[in-house]
Amino acid sequence: MIETILMITIAIAITTILFFLRNGLKLLINAICGVITLFIVSYFNLAPIGNLTIAQIVVCTTSGMVGAAFLIILAFFGIVI
User: Fold this and answer.
1) 49 in a domain, yes or no?
2) Which of 26, 32, 70, 76 could serve as a FRET partner for 8 with CA atoms 20 to 30 Å apart?
3) How do the pLDDT tens digits run along the chain, 81 residues long?
């Protein structure tokens, strides 16, 4: 009986860990793509964002590609963070 409960607990723990790793990996890839996009836009002067700041990088790491697009759109309206 104890072995069965232990095996079920281990199975639930492994499933939970894999679920969070899978979602965490997606978030990490999105953040990396956002920062790389911001670096490319800044390097080639594709948008008037100027030099990269810590705030811009934090926005891209927390929101990924959506954050990079948001910063680029704001730069075209003259708002640079």
Assistant:
1) yes
2) 26
3) 777 777 778 777 777 777 777 788 888 888 889 999 999 999 998 888 888 888 898 888 888 899 999 999 999 999 888
Q: Is residue 12 domain-resident?
A: yes
Closest of 45, 46, 65, 67 to residue 55, by C-alpha = 67
Domain residues for the domain of 62 are: 2-76
Query: In whole angstroms, what separates CA 18 from the centre of its chain?
Result: 19
d(CA 53, CA 11): 44
Burial class (CB in 10 A: 0-12, 13-18, 19+), 38: buried
Write out the two tokens for 23. Answer: 């979602």
Report the pLDDT value the prediction gives residue 19, as an integer from 0 to 100. 77
In the block, residue with structure tokens 């934090």? 58
How far, in Å, CA of 22 to CA of 1, rounded?
Answer: 32
